Amino acid sequence: MSESSKQTRTPLIAANWKMHKIPPEAADFVSALKAAVLPLEGREVVICPSFTSLEAVRQAIQGTPFRLGAQNMHEQASGAFTGEVSASMLLAAGCRYVILGHSERRQFFGETHEWVNRKVRAALAAGLIPIFCVGEKLPEREAGQTMNVIRQQVRGGLQGFSSKEIGPLVIAYEPVWAIGTGKTATPAQAQEVHAFIRQIIVELFDASRAASLRILYGGSIKPDNIDDLMAQADIDGGLVGGASLESASFARIVSFQVSTPHVSTS
Ligand code: PEP
Question: Which of 85, 135, 245, 263 has the greatest CB tally within 10 Å of its CB?
Fold first, then answer.
């Protein structure tokens, strides 16, 4: 994809707080973030707290361009699913986004391609924007299987959708070996997979859908690597775990600067 198609995609930086922060901590974080980064120009910011801090973040972001997201949801609209939360509940709680298929959900909670596919369908049907995560494990990368794994995950998660149905869906490429490890993919490694994902979208849907799809990178994003990652032609933002827990580091990531955009060879 060309650099010019990148200009049409609004960069998105999302904070994945995982199982961290109680409501007062969440509210304090948002106050500090507001002071550090507003007004936002040319970028979108999404905060994904735990379910119990959704309301605190919803209140704290009122009147700002920040958006609220959840970290997971159940695919059924309602029913006897103790401990689960549905898409309509998330919408009512003020969410616009939901992270789906995160590698921790796949690894620790047994989420499969088919299951993630059902969740993506339910989220889109309800009007939530999925941040659909894919990524290879270290042994898969070392065995030269990265692209096969990514192809299976993208095709599995998006199987059965039309271009129109996937709507504003966002994909996050998160190599599992880079999540929470301090090992970031190099900008070139990330760009290679992002360009590959965009090509899969061309095959599954069409070139214009691929050109408008936002693909985030995730995996040990830090203030000192965000600028180089964002300079890549097919990297449209970041899904940030550890470095999103501290307002100063997340503010620096949100304030990424791209001086010399790289032109993709794909
Ligand atoms: C994540 O969990 O989505 C993530 C990218 O985590 P970290 O930034 O800590 O690697």
Answer: 135
